[in-house]
Amino acid sequence: MLATAILSEIMLPLDLRVLLLIVHNEMKHNNVLPNGHFHKHWQNYVRTWFNQPGRKKRRRTARQKKALAIAPRPVAGSLRPVVRCPTFKYHTKVRSGRGFTLEELKTAQIKLRFAKTVGIAVDHRRKNKSTESLQANVQRLQEYQSKLIIFPRKQNKPKAGDSEASVLTVATQLKGPVLPITQIKTDTKARMITDEERKISVFRSMRVARANARLIGIRAKRVKDAEADAAMKAKK
């Protein structure tokens, strides 16, 4: 009552007096002042999630049906390559890619048609830009081949390359990821910067290398045009 009487005597704008009353009567501690801008009938447009438990159950049953349908193949699906994440921010991380390149399959001595039948994902658009990525994925393919169990199309007529009957009897469906990918950790110890390293600018070297890679076609065209002009002048 005292606060109300004091506020009524002080000549303040109406909005400010209401705000001071709210702060005096309701607000406690260092919290945000209530300032809700609501539309009419906003209660009718509140987003609800009452179907969340049902969705969870449907997803689980769908996963179980898929696992039964593709058995004895792995639940996670096809084998994926190890790739670097794009952009400068994330390129230190590795993750699973879309599919193996044709060069990786050729180096691992795996035919394209055969790869698709044994759960190896293939992406004909992807290109290998480094020897390290090529070798890592070839090694991944070879490891997968060494652990691969191939069931014959007809049980009575096994073909060359199919697994033995003793192996087929103990084979189980793989539940987790196929050859899980682990992050590469490089532990570097702190040390003093040498005088030779101070003379070299790594940032500038990277900029020059990028510029050379970007302008290689333009520079080659300039050289070719200059040679053509010189040949034309020599003829004249």
Structural class: mainly alpha
Q: Compute the gyration radius: what is it?
A: 34 Å
How many distinct beta strands?
Answer: 2
**Sheet with the most strands?**
2 strands, antiparallel
The general outline is extended
Element pattern in H and E: HHHEHEHHHHHH
Total of helices:
10
Proportion of beta-strand residues: under 5%
On the 0 to 100 scale, the average pLDDT is: 88
Going across the major beta sheet, what is the strand order? 1-2
> Which oligomerization state do the chains in this entry correspond to?
single chain
Contiguous uncertain segments of 5+ residues: 1-7
Q: In whole angstroms, how far apart are the ends?
A: 107 Å
Write a structural description.
This protein has helices at 2-9, 14-25, 52-70, 87-90, 102-107, 112-117, 131-147, 165-170, 195-199, 202-235; strands at residues 82-84, 94-96. The chain has 236 residues and is mostly helical. The chain has a domain at 80-150. Strands 1-2 form a two-stranded antiparallel ribbon.
Q: Helices, strands, pairings?
A:
Elements: H1 2-9, H2 14-25, H3 52-70, E1 82-84, H4 87-90, E2 94-96, H5 102-107, H6 112-117, H7 131-147, H8 165-170, H9 195-199, H10 202-235
Antiparallel strand pairs: 1-2
Features:
10 helices, 2 strands, disordered N terminus, structural constituent of ribosome, about 240 residues, mainly alpha, ribonucleoprotein, RNA binding, Large ribosomal subunit protein eL13, Ribosomal_eL13, two-stranded antiparallel ribbon
